[in-house]
Amino acid sequence: MMRVAAFEHYLRTGRVPNPRLDAGDEVKFNHNHDRLGRFTFSGGAVGMSRAPSIAPPRSRIPSTGRSPAPQPSSAAPRRRAAAEIPGYPESGRTSWRSANDYAFAAAANHYNRKYNLKPGADEYKTPEFLKAWAMRESGGEGDHAAFTTDPFQVNKPRDWAPEKARLGLQQGQKMTPAVSAYAALEWLRQKSFWHDGKGGVRRLDTQGALERYNHRKVRSRESGQEMHYVWYARTIMQMARAATAKERRA
Question: Is 216 helix (H, G, I), strand (E, B) or coil?
């Protein structure tokens, strides 16, 4: 096996490689990789491509996938990695909702660079989009354990699909927020390609892809008279836009 970029290593494992301990070759669980050790997506999935090997970010990413504790400073306050999502306060017993901010920001940045996406494009992903999505999946007050392991619930046993192996996942593997975010974005991208059964393929927008990601075609306590999958996608988009607007005003 070949060595891979430090950031790609972190996204798959949730651990920053140690040059002293990881001096040897890395053994990866994903059998779909090319001669340079990079992920490939076998099976001919429409729109999927090899993930580029990118340089790690300048600052060290926390190995736990959680945000470091804020440090006091006399300088002007720095922009947060991801804004607080309306309706999901991050104080007191739910302060853990900010724990994955840096993992979400890193995954969004990696995804946008991988697919050469620019701000304003529908597929462009922001940290606030990922955070709003995670809140809908695992941000409830009783969901702390899920939020700090698999916040996007992309590898739940009952929802496993063989196609997820193309994302580098293994059924039942131990998840981290970074791995969950990376895999969820790729799974959402796959869901955006709608096959009509006659050989035609239509590309859905992000909200349409979210509907297929959830696919609960029932009315629920949360959705009221609206189908749950429609409510799920619509509210994620609304929360993300509201959080982004609030952050820009700050």
Answer: coil
DSSP-assigned letter for residue 222: T
What distance in Å separates the CA atoms of residue 121 and residue 72, rounded to the nearest whole number?
36
Residue matched to tokens 């597929």: 123
Task: Give the bridge partners for 46, in sequence order.
Answer: none
Residue 48, pLDDT score? 38
Print burial letters for 92-127: b (CB count within 10 Å at least 16), e (below 16): eebebbbbbbbbbbbbbbbbbebbeeeeeeebebbb
CA–CA dist 229, 192 (Å, integer): 14
Q: What share of the chain is helix, strand, coil (3-state, %, to 5)?
A: 40, 5, 55
Structure tokens at 35: 């001669």
**Distance between the two ends of the chain, CA-based, in angstroms?**
46
Q: What is the model's pLDDT at position 7?
A: 58
Q: What is the length of the chain?
A: 250
CA 42 – CA 101 distance, rounded (Å): 31
Q: What is the reported pTM?
A: 0.70
Alpha carbons 103 and 113: distance in angstroms, whole number: 15
Closest CA to 33 of 3, 78, 11, 57: 3
Q: From CA 48, how far away is CA 43, in angstroms rounded?
A: 10
Cα–chain-centroid distance for residue 180? 6
Q: Where are the beta strands (DSSP E) in 102-224?
A: 193-195, 201-203
Tens digit of pLDDT for each residue in 32-85? 445 444 445 444 433 333 333 333 344 333 444 444 444 544 454 456 799 999
Among residues 209, 181, 99, the alpha carbon closest in space to that of 145 is found at 99
